[in-house]
Design a protein that fits this description.
Elements: E1 5-9, H1 13-23, E2 29-33, H2 36-45, E3 50-53, H3 62-71, E4 78-82, H4 87-94, E5 100-103, H5 110-123, H6 137-147
Parallel strand pairs: 1-2, 1-3, 3-4, 4-5
Helix pairs in contact: 2-3
């Protein structure tokens, strides 16, 4: 049974290699990118079912990445994995439908969240083809809260 494709985005080469090695059994293909610019290129070329992304990276940070892919109508499950997270950042990325948020270097439970993200992403419809549902229900709910 297909598992889906995973994209890992992080500017730390050793961590990127370790994550790929630890998570490859959960995905059909694991793609890696050292920054947000390369991640966006992969997302344009490949069918990705889940993204795990660092926040602080050169050229384009993780928050900019999720903003860009959501503006392109891509609703892929997006998991942040960072050593610099805080509640304010968590609330900001929630506006863009972040699937989950993990603090580095914690690996406890990361595999389970990745497996859930891949499963959900594999079964989600391609949002870029359905102009009537560009914003997820979760995003609509968050937008409603902001507008009150």
């Amino acid at each position: 049974m297909p598992k889906g494709n995973l994209l890992i985005v992080d500017d730390e080469p050793l961590l990127l290699k370790r994550l790929k090695m630890n998570l490859q059994e959960y995905a059909d293909i694991v793609f890696t990118a050292p920054d947000g610019i390369e991640a966006l290129e992969i997302l344009k070329k490949e069918k990705i079912h889940c993204v795990i992304c660092d926040v602080n990276m050169p050229r384009m940070n993780g928050v900019e990445v999720i903003k860009r892919i959501r503006s392109e109508k891509n609703d892929v499950p997006f998991i942040f994995y960072t050593g610099h997270g805080n509640q304010e950042m968590m609330l900001e990325v929630a506006k863009y439908g972040a699937f989950d948020f993990f603090n580095k270097p914690n690996f406890d439970g990361l595999e389970e969240v990745i497996a859930r993200g891949l499963k959900e992403g594999f079964h989600r419809p391609d949002m870029s083809k359905d102009n009537d549902t560009l914003i997820s229900e979760y995003q609509k709910l968050l937008n409603g809260i902001e507008n009150e």
